[in-house]
Design a protein that fits this description.
Length: 106
């Protein structure tokens, strides 16, 4: 099990994504969130994914990004989808787990 916490920024929404995979060939993502748009996305796309179709795609593609693009769930800088993909790729051993961050510098 791999779990990440995503604090989205000025909106104040927090999402925790849990990724579970037994064999690296499929991954289950669950999201606990106070963001109605993210909750709606996960309700619509479900929780079962092929990690290769989810993680090893061109930037901005894959089932989560495609849903977001078609349904305008969030703005382009929302980090929730990237965080969910990072959880899945670490859980399926497609990448090593490593924290990522965005920091404003004055």
């Amino acid at each position: 099990m791999t779990k990440v916490r995503i604090e989205a920024g000025i909106c104040g929404h927090v999402t925790e994504v849990t990724a579970v995979s037994e064999d690296g060939m499929d991954v289950t993502l669950t999201a606990e969130t106070d963001c109605p748009a993210v909750r709606k996305m996960f309700d619509a796309v479900g929780s079962e994914f092929d990690p290769y179709e989810l993680c090893l795609t061109k930037p901005g593609t894959g089932p989560l990004y495609e849903y977001a693009a078609e349904n305008m769930i969030a703005h382009g800088a929302c980090p929730v989808i990237a965080g969910a993909v990072k959880a899945a790729e670490a859980e399926c051993r497609l990448a090593l787990p490593k924290n990522a961050s965005i920091t404003f510098v004055e």
